[in-house]
Structures are given as C-alpha cells and as structure tokens.
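Justification of resources, computational component.

The compute hours requested in this renewal are based largely on the per-chain cost of generating structure records like the one below. Each record pairs the submitted sequence with a full structure-token output. That output is archived, and it is also reused by downstream analysis tasks.
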Amino acid sequence: MTAESASLERPVMRVLLAVDGSEPGGLAVDLVANVAWPAGTEIVVAEAVESGAGLYGGPWPGLPAAEADHLETEVRAQATRNVDEARARVAKPGVQAETAVLRGRPAVAIGERARAMRADLIVAGGRGHGRIESMLLGSVSAELVDHAPTPVLVARGPRIERILLAWDGSSCAARAAECLRAWPIFAGSVIHVLSVADIEVPWWTGFPEPGSPELMPIYVETAEASRKQHDEIAHAMAAELQAVGLDATADRREGDAATQILAAAGAWKADLIVMGTHGRTGLARLVIGSVARNVLQHATCSVLIARENAPHLEPGAGRAG
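The structure output for this chain reads:
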C-alpha cells in the first residue's frame, strides 16, 4: 500500500473549535492549526455570545432598548471577527473549515452545536477572560467536560507530540485509550502509559495503626500485589497501542492518582494528558470525577478527557449517507 492510498483510507474527523478572542483561546487555535488532520476533516470554529443579563454577568442595566441592542450587535460583530480570524489560521488544504456565532450560554450552546454536527472532538482553551466577563473559557471548559456529548480537549499548548495516557483498566479509561487508537491525529505521537497504584492500609485488616507488627506482612503483600497489577495493566495497554502502530511505553507509580499523573506529566514534559472519567449524576448535571477534575484544574499541559457515557469515538460515526 502506498503512502497516498493509506492517507485516503484514514477516517475524517469533525471538530468543534471553541474560541473567545482571549490568549488562552488562541492556544486552542494554535493547537488545531498544528494538528495533522486527515483529509476531509470538518472544523467548525464557534463562539457563543449571551444576551441580556448573561452578556453583563449580572442584572441587565437600565439602558434604552436601542443602546442595549447596539451593544449586543457590537459584541456579536467582535465574535464574528474572532471566528473569522481563527478560521483563517486553521484552514488548510484538505480541511473544510467554517464559522458559527452561537447565541446563548457558552457551554450549553457549544454542546448543542457539537451534538447537532455529531462532532468527534471539542477543543477549547483552558482559561479565558473575554469581553465584560469571562464569556467562554476557564470554568466553561470544565462545564463542557461535564456536559458535552463528545470528548473535550482543553488546550494549554500548541502541540500534541508527547502524550501521557492515564490508565487504570476501567471502562472510562478505555474510552480515552480508544481515542488514541481510533483517531489518526495521534499517529505520530509518542505515548507514555501511566498506571497509578493507590497503596493504602487495607481497610479490612481491622488494624488502626499502619505500623502494627501484625499488619505489616498483610500490608506488604497487598501493596506488592497492587504494584504488580498496575505494572501488568500498563504494559498490556502499551502493547495494545504498539500493535496498532503507535510508539508507546509503560510506567507505574504509586500514591494519589491525580498527584502522580500531574507529576509524571511534568517530569516527562508531556504536551497532553489523555484520561477518562465517569459521568456521575448530580441534581441537575453530570459531574466529572475528582481525579479528572483535579488534573484538569492543575495541569500545565493540555488535557483530553473522554467521559464514559459520551456517545461515540469512531471518527465520522453516524454520518448520514
């Protein structure tokens, strides 16, 4: 098979790039511009603009109707300039890029557009401060992870060459690993599979003191079994990634999962952390797990989070015709 024919067989992707004109939002644009998207990829560059009280981040001021309308028109005009500039930066031969200025609460409007276009991926900046208030990014990126119908990549850098996969063998972690296997954008990346063993005093021993002589043999045995298990699952996943042609290695750490994931990403100089999370039902929203949220909040590199109950990961799944 020639390189040209192999390229033609690579699945296309549909990507929603969320912008707001901020510097962190610009990092998301840089990242999307630098990715080697497969030919036929569709990118929608979108900005969401609220109206009324949402535009001000508080009560609607007592402005004459004409003045309020003029202000909203100006905000939407700036959003149009933002998406047009971003589109010019991400457009390239073989990639179809279009723009959209959405109306409504940013996380909701972006999620709805992603669902309507059956996006494979949402890319957003990590923290932004747009006009009047923070209008799109920052806390909105975490809300997108909570609610979006597809994996979300929170961009904090311009490239995804060195990837750390947080792996514990769970079904939600498997959703994240499937992104690496299924999406051609990761074909040239180096992947470091990390599994973290949480070594604690077994609750079922009934010994309150970790240093109790009676406890130590049980603790040592349990800790060693956990280390062995996490070594095995890390190497098994690395082997699975290698089997589909990816450059992957394995590692095991022990301790608090979020702390060790962040430490490993920093020590290895990762560009991107890839991890899964459970969709947990709250009173009126889905809430990502504490490990994923801690990593998302404190990572200095980009983070891609795949929620376990996101509908699909195969590029182009569900395309009509």
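The longest strand covers residues 42-49. The longest helix spans residues 216-243.
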